[in-house]
Fold:
Amino acid sequence: MDMEMKAEQRDSAIKFCFSSKAILILFYCALQTIGQVGGPILTRIYFLHGGKRKWIPSWLLTAGFPCLIVPICFSLARRNRHQNSRFLVTRRLILASAIIGSLLGIDSYMYTIGGAYLPVSVSSLLSSSQLAFTSIFAFFLVKHKFTHYSINAVVLMTFGSIILGLHMNGDRPIGETNGLYMLGFFMTIAAAALHGFLMPAVEYTHFKAGVVVTYELVLQVQFLISAFATLFCTVPMIINKDFQAMPREAAEFGLGPLKYYMILFSAALALQCLVIGSLGIIFTSTSLLGGIVSSLLVPVQQAFAVFFLPESFNAEKGMALAMCLWGFASYFYGEYKTSQKQQETKQKSELGILV
Structure:
C-alpha cells in the first residue's frame, strides 16, 4: 500500500514538473512571438517613412534591458537572506556574456541592414535559415542528438523556406537598386548564420557555468548579455552622432515626431521580448527548439506584414505556413514522446530499487 502511494506521489510530482516546464516554455514562446513579429515590422516602418540611421534599430534590440531589473530584484528578494551572495554570475559567465553580447550587437546590425533594404516577407524568410545553422552548431557545441521527429521538422521548415524563396523577386521594393538589395540579402544570411551560432553558444555557456543553473542565474546572464550588446551598439552611435540626429530625424519623419518616438519605444520593448524569449527557451529546453520556434514564426511574420505593410500574401506563403505548422507539431510530438519514455525509464528504475 505504501509503495502504491509513493508511486502515485512520484507520478503526480513528475506530471506537475512537466506541466510547469511546459507553461514556462509557452510563456517564453509568447515573448519571442511578440518580439519576432512586432520588432521587424516596426523597424521596417521606421525605414519606410524616412528613418535612415542603421545603428538606432540595432541599438533598440537590447536597449530595453533595464526592464529586467524588476524580475531580477524580485528574484533576489525571494532568495534566502542567509546566503552569502545574491549575485550568482561568476567571472567566467561575465566574460562569456561580454563575448556573446558583442556578437549579438554585430548580429543586430547585420539584421538591421537586411531590414533596411528588404521587405519583411523576404528578410524573415532568409532569417529562417538560421534553423539549419542552429542544428549544426548545436550538434557540435552541446552534442544535441537528432531524432526522426526533429529531422522531420527541420526538413519541412526548410522546404517551406524554399517555397517562399521561389517568390522573392515579386516583393522587391520599388526603386531599390540591385546593389542595395543584394547587400541586404547577404547581410541577412550572414546574420542568420551568426544567430545560429549564438543560440547553442548560450546553451554551452549554461553547461560550462560552473554553478547550478537556476532561473535567477539566467535572468542575470540575460541582463549582462543585453547590457554588453547595448554598449557595443552605443559606441558607434556616439561616433556617428545618432543621438543628436534623432530630433532632426523625428521632425522629418513621414508619420510625425510623436509616432517616430512611439515606434522606436515600441520596437525597443518588442525586441527585448524577443531577446528574453529566445534566451528563456534555451534555458527551459534547447537551442534547437529556439530555432524551430523562430522558423515557425516566419509565416506569421508574412501574414502580419500583409496587414501592416504594402506586401502581398499568396499561395506559396500559405503552403509554407502549413509546412511550418506541420514541422512544429512534429517536433513537439517528438519531445512529448521522449519525455514519456524518460518518465517510464525513471519509474521502472525507482520501482526496481524499492523492490
In short: The chain is about 80% helix and 0% strand.
